[in-house]
Amino acid sequence: MLRVWTPGGDEMVAIPVEEAIDVTSLKKQLQKSCGLPRFRQRLLRESVVLDDDTKLSSPADLQLVLLPFADVDTSQVTSIVSAAQCGRASAVEEMLKLPQDPSLGDHESRTALHGACMNGHMDVVQLLLESGCDMNATDNRGRTALHLASGNGYVKILRLLVESAAHVNLRDGFGNTALHVAACEGQLGSVRALLQSGICKDMVDHSGRTALHDASQNGHIATVRVLLDAGASRDLEDEDGLTAATYFGRFCFGHMDLVFKLH
Fold first, then answer.
1. pLDDT by residue (tens digit) across 50-96?
2. Which PROSITE patterns match (predicted)?
């Protein structure tokens, strides 16, 4: 058997040797018991720390040590955010193994997850979610990773965040939800995915505007159709007393079918 023990001498798991795995796989299993991701675990055999790619194919007694986050400076936080933004997954993983807190923000309060979602790096997003980062952390404009993925049209990342229990109705510093951002940018795939997630269709920003207002003002015809078909309210007025139909009539000439639908 392959047995894993705590420093206090308690057995955590016992695995038949024939189920040969490597250290990384074992750490993922151990997370269920210890509550910490693999980046904060160290497995020792006879006081020697095992590399993550070490194969475990023979009987052994291993000791599990759990680490607190390392003390890092501003430059190190900036480095992991930059690496995530550039899609350098291996660099991000090495920094997570320090172990570095993935939820720390840079001078603009952007976390590594913000950086990865901003530029659509799915592999980095998966690493960061595995590390237990704060999915709902906000930058200095109040934007979450979901805002950034939605506004940039990274639908697969958006869906992963939602499946990982990101809060879909959080608003940024202007009161925009991810649906506002996606509608404003005409990101039809994002709009559809967010509507499927159960996001509030009619939440208003600080100016009283809904996602339908934003899509209408920016002339995103297909987005307007999808929002209307999903039951978005046509009658809500913004702080200027204007409905989405008013904006649509100004900016979307030639689509009378939708004008009538909005009214």
1. 999 999 988 999 999 999 999 999 999 999 999 999 999 999 999 99
2. ANK_REP_REGION, ANK_REPEAT, UBIQUITIN_2
The structure tokens listed for 228 are 């209307």
Helical (H) or strand (E) element with 90: helix 89-96
Rg (CA), the chain: 24
Give the total residue count for the chain.
263
Alpha-helical regions (H) of 109-255: 112-119, 122-130, 145-151, 155-163, 178-185, 188-197, 211-217, 221-229, 244-251
pLDDT score recorded for residue 261:
57
Sign of CA dihedral 29, 35, 38, 43: negative
| Rounded Cα–Cα distance for residues 242 and 234 (Å) | 11
| Residue 16, C-beta contacts closer than 8 angstroms, at least 6 positions apart | 1, 2
DSSP-derived letter for residue 55 is E
- 75 Cβ contact partners less than 8 Å away, ≥ 6 residues apart: none
| Amino acid at site 257 | D
CA distance 244 to 50: 60
CA atoms within 13 A on the CB side of 181: 30
> Domains of the chain by range and CATH?
2-66 (3.10.20.90), 167-263 (1.25.40.20)
Note whether 52 and 23 are within 8 A (CB).
yes
